[in-house]
Specification:
- The complex is a heterodimer of chains A (about 325) and B (about 325).
- Chain A is globular and about 70 Å long.
- Chain A contains twelve helices and nine strands.
- The N terminus of chain A is likely disordered.
- Chain A has about 325 residues and is an alpha/beta fold.
- In chain B, the strands form four sheets. Chain B has a seven-stranded parallel sheet with strand order 3-2-1-4-5-6-11, sandwiched between helices. Chain B has a two-stranded parallel ribbon with strand order 7-10. Chain B has a two-stranded parallel ribbon with strand order 8-13.
- In chain B, helix 1 crosses helix 6, helix 2 packs across helix 3 and helix 3 packs parallel to helix 4.
- Chain B has about 325 residues and is of the alpha/beta class.
- The chains are: A alpha/beta (about 325), B alpha/beta (about 325).
- Chains A and B meet through helix 1, helix 3, helix 6, helix 7 and helix 8 of A and helix 6, strand 12, helix 7 and helix 10 of B.
């Protein structure tokens, strides 16, 4: 058609009210979706008030819930399968809890000290020394914090990129609270009141060999400090003693590793000699020491741009971690505790 | 500016184009809709007038400009993109990049004051080094092997440049996540439609969707009201692929990545490739987009990612889930 002949009468008609109409349609649809859910919820409340539960051999509530779950897609909404915005799966964490507990209490006999000085009821940015290719230290610190309720929410640990690129590692780490190490992620976590365990040494820490053990490397370029200033959370230095001996890297092979996308292939007393079994960490005795928190809430947000201040705080943190490490090392009778 | 009097929609046969045309023309109130495409969609309602223009034609810009001026078009919605990439790289480039260029020239000549462009969060590209949530200001890194994504990135650059030169025109770019719902159908939906779904062995990324109604709501608002800027149109929440499949009662068919890419490459070279190898990167790495900006501007979506997925699954296989 060449000439769309359309009435022009709308020109002087009152202007349409798109906001109102759209909102109305939205509300109507929300209602259709939500009404059934609401009715079911009310019914459940009514039933639980009237029916005796448990004592007579029939668990009415369980029966009701199972019936409701079979109600097609309505029931599917209440399936417990759910992850948070960073992929942490509470159900998976709950399933892993006995294993993690055993790892902490039986295998590594983790001891925690200095937790009394931790700021309560607010998220913190934990800054720890890093060791070993596998992020056992992050997992252990997070689990210890969560278990002793030292953080308001489930704390997360930051993981290097290349580790998240490995098959199977990514879903595993993500479900248990690992998050890719980058500034955006850390800030988003802290702003939503979740504590973060960061390893500012990064790859330099993870890839150091056994004779460099417990020598804290440079703390990146101060990204941790900047993140803490921007989100106004305290920085807590953390020293982990014992993790270095879990995977003692004797030396590293770099040439062959490039082909399979790893930064290097570590050679430990057990790996690669024992194959996959060599990935089992050694049962060294672990000690986690929390240092004095460094407050950043008195600083103005512009302090983030103050390079000298940032590098001073950064160095102060690094020194605090090193100091705490040396303390722990002096105190321990032997590697195996 | 009040609601525009005449809205032109390019790509009338696309999902957004057709649905938006129907929605807008049903509003009345003197709002006219003009559809532009190669062919009239057979299901389209009668009252939407249609104009046949080939955007890849060298004279398309002059023809569109003349059309826009004659019909006094005030707003243009650009959805003329391929639903599925074709093996013909040249044709894709001609439509998505050059076609957009022609349209932009016409909009400038006809002094169109509002331009709404359909885009995708796929343009950010799936990468292991993406932050968990990509904001609108994150660079569009696309995918090195997917020419269809590269064309779209180029298209967005053209649109952004056009907008910079004309500060008085409202340019809205809506980057939508994968659209799910009872009636939307494309390559992505087809991948998830069967009861067996191929996945990449050892990877389980979080995915996010947007429900078709929420997506159309955003487009409708962008046309009727002033919503300048770039927005990620996504539903709240994200779920891992494995959990999505479990919710839907589907079976994952995991294949190792190298094998998958090799087979797909072979298939696409023999032009039966479907989907291309690059698609599997979207099932492997993170590419979640941050939706807060759009939620503030357009209102909270009615459906979450989980609900959008369930809406799709329930409508596809209603009988099985009753």
């Amino acid at each position: 058609m060449s000439e769309p002949h359309l009435p022009e009468s709308g020109e002087d008609a009152p202007a349409p009210d798109p906001e109102g109409a759209a909102a109305e349609a939205r509300a109507r649809r929300r209602l259709e979706g939500g009404l059934l859910q609401e009715a079911l919820g009310a019914l459940r409340a009514e039933l639980s008030a009237r029916l005796p539960s448990g004592e007579h051999g029939v668990d009415w509530m369980a029966l009701f819930d199972s019936l409701r779950r079979r109600l097609g897609s309505t029931g599917m909404r209440s399936l417990p399968a759910e992850v948070d915005e960073f992929g942490l799966d509470r159900a998976a964490l709950e399933r892993a809890r006995p294993w993690l507990d055993a790892l902490l209490d039986r295998w590594w006999r983790v001891e925690v000290s200095g937790a009394d000085a931790l700021p309560r009821g607010q998220p913190c940015l934990f800054v720890a020394n890093h060791s070993g290719l596998l992020p056992w230290d992050g997992l252990v610190i997070c689990h210890a914090l969560g278990r002793e309720r030292l953080a308001p929410e489930a704390p997360r640990f930051l993981v290097e990129d290349w580790l998240l690129g490995l098959p199977f590692a990514q879903p595993f780490l993500t479900r248990l609270g690992g998050v890719r190490a980058c500034r955006e992620n850390a800030e988003r976590l802290l702003r939503t009141r979740r504590s973060v365990v960061a390893f500012p040494e990064g790859a330099k820490g993870a890839t150091k060999v056994f004779r460099q053990r417990y020598r804290v490397q440079r703390f990146g370029r101060g990204g941790v400090v900047r993140t803490a200033i921007a989100t106004r959370v305290p920085l807590v230095p953390v020293a982990v003693v014992g993790a270095e001996e879990a995977h003692p890297v004797l030396f590293k092979v770099e040439s062959a590793a490039r082909a399979i996308g790893l930064p290097f292939v570590p050679v430990t007393p057990t790996f690669p000699w024992l194959g996959p079994l060599g990935l089992v960490p050694l049962p060294s005795k672990w000690w986690i020491g929390f240092g004095e928190p460094v407050r950043t809430d008195e600083l103005v947000p512009e302090a983030e741009q103050d390079e000298l201040l940032v590098s001073r705080l950064n160095e102060q943190l690094r020194a605090a971690v090193q100091e705490r490490l040396d303390e722990g090392l002096r105190a321990r009778p032997s590697v195996w505790g | 500016m009040h609601a525009p009097g005449c809205v032109a929609i390019t790509g009338l046969r696309s999902f957004v184009g057709q649905r938006l045309a129907e929605r807008l023309s049903a509003r009345g109130h003197g709002l006219r809709v003009l559809g532009i495409d190669l062919r009239r969609p057979w299901r389209l309602e009668r009252r939407v007038p249609f104009e046949r223009v080939d955007l890849t034609d060298p004279s398309a810009n002059a023809r569109l400009a003349e059309l826009f001026a004659r019909e006094r078009v005030e707003a243009v919605v650009h959805t003329a993109f391929r639903r599925d990439p074709t093996p013909d790289l040249e044709a894709d480039h001609e439509l998505e990049t050059i076609g957009t260029l022609h349209l932009l020239h016409a909009c400038a000549a006809a002094k169109v004051s509002r331009l709404v462009v359909a885009s995708s969060t796929m343009l950010y590209g799936p990468r292991p080094d993406n932050p968990q949530y990509l904001s609108e200001s994150h660079p569009l890194r696309g995918h090195p092997d997917a020419h269809c994504i590269r064309n779209r990135v180029e298209m967005e650059e053209l649109v952004a440049e056009w907008g910079r030169k004309r500060p008085d025109a409202d340019v809205t770019v809506l980057r939508c996540a994968w659209v799910m719902g009872p009636s939307h159908w494309d390559r992505v939906v087809r991948h998830f439609a069967g009861s067996l779904v191929t996945t990449v062995l050892g990877y389980d990324p979080l995915l996010q969707f947007v429900h078709e109604d929420d997506c159309l709501d955003a487009f409708e608002q962008a046309v009727l009201e002033r919503r300048r800027g770039v927005y990620n149109v996504v539903a709240p929440g994200a779920l891992p692929l494995s959990m999505l499949l479990r919710l839907a009662g589907k079976t994952a068919l995991p294949a190792p990545a190298p094998l998958l890419y090799r087979i797909r490459d072979l298939a696409s070279r023999t032009q039966t490739g479907d989907p291309p190898a690059a698609f599997y990167d979207y099932l492997r790495w993170l590419w979640l987009a941050e939706g807060e900006r759009a939620w503030n501007a357009f209102g909270e979506p009615v459906y979450s990612t989980r609900e959008a997925w369930i809406s799709f699954v329930a409508s596809r296989r209603m009988r099985q889930y009753r």
